[in-house]
Design goal:
386 residues, alpha+beta, seven-stranded antiparallel beta sheet, 13 helices, globular, binds MYO-inositol-(1,3,4,5,6)-pentakisphosphate, binds adenosine-5'-triphosphate
Length: 386
Amino acid sequence: MDTFSGYTLCLPDLTKFQSCQRIERRPPLCIEIKPKCGFIPFSSHVTKEIKQRVCRYCMHQHLKVANGKWKRISKYCPLDLFSGNKQRMYFALKSLLQEAQNNLKIFKNGELIFGCKDDQDCLMDLNELANHLKAYFFPANGVVSGPQCTRTVIKELIHVISMALLSNPKAPTGAVKRNRDSEKRSYCEASHVPREALRNGIHSLENSDLPRDSVLWRILQVQMLDMLDIDGVYPLYQRVQQHLETSPKDRIRLHLDGPYDEDFYESLSDLRSEDDGTVEYAARKIHQYRVAMTAKDCSIMIALSPYPVEEGHEPSNEIQTSRACFVFSVSILDLDPKPYENIAHQYNLDGKIINYYVQKTKTKMAATSPSFPIENEDCTLYFHSV
Ligand SMILES: O=P(O)(O)O[C@@H]1[C@@H](OP(=O)(O)O)[C@H](OP(=O)(O)O)[C@H](O)[C@H](OP(=O)(O)O)[C@H]1OP(=O)(O)O
Ligand SMILES: Nc1ncnc2c1ncn2[C@@H]1O[C@H](COP(=O)(O)OP(=O)(O)OP(=O)(O)O)[C@@H](O)[C@H]1O
């Protein structure tokens, strides 16, 4: 509900399956993922070299833990999830299950069974999650338990989530191959994926790249409307602010607070990046940045409704593994536009994230690097016969 305008938005409950399906004994599941930004900035305005190597999410983790927002650093890296590479996606989803923070929630029949209600109240027990889910993956034998059961259920769950994230509602039109440059931009040096898997990932073309029109592909396309990065957008914001001081009424003409109509939408498709020095150019780039920011903060809802393996279904909206069958739907949540004023906050936050990360990694490197002999210290090597 928007208390300023007096409007209320009435949305369907996305934790429940939307289309009318046959009644199943087992209730619907829903997985909510807030994936965050899935690429390394490619803008030439970026001056801090670290931003070209480590993604914002991984850097921000350190500041969040230092500020007490979360207790532990997550091994989740959005670039692994958005990679389209099965191994990296598996690792990303497993990391979310180990440290969900506000990036993963699981609902059963609309009720939260895994993830955080808020910063204090988190349900994070994987065995309990497996207990909730085993009826979906061991339908004939609900009594299995123990670590093996948990492992199998979690593996199956990750498999099902990956399939939903990579599914293409418009039938197969192929994956979008990355060129060498964008490939480099899709690796984060702070990722915890084992180096070996990364090396294989870079060279293996199969199981890599996002299928066109999959939910991850669509979100990534919108995120990449941020072509200048906050480093390039902030000076444009200052240009607009300066202009508004003398012409405050232009705030409406420049659509800074909406309306989000055809004109606004059209301004998103003009991707020219030659700055002609006008306030119109600045406003257009700010619109694109704000829409990208919205896509960097949205959530994906995957609703799953189980059905018996032997029953046929539209293959386009079903997920079938060796152990389970689901019909599924994928929606995107939390698409309210980021306010124009947010840009100043983003700029300051970006600086804090980077400074803290650089300082933290420097201290860590100093503590782990080998100590060199101090001046005048005896460094004679003695060889003993063996
Ligand atoms: O800046 P970030 O990346 O920390 O994102 C904020 C989110 O923090 P997160 O990193 O996901 O824990 C933050 O999430 P929480 O409220 O902390 O769960 C909000 O979504 C915030 O958006 P808004 O200002 O409420 O519209 C988000 O702010 P925006 O950057 O999208 O404006
Ligand atoms: N249509 C919906 N169906 C099911 N659950 C929903 C729906 N809308 C929101 N939720 C749940 O409520 C949570 C908060 O929603 P949302 O982020 O839109 O609210 P908000 O007030 O904008 O919160 P924030 O400022 O933290 O983003 C979501 O993470 C999701 O779990």
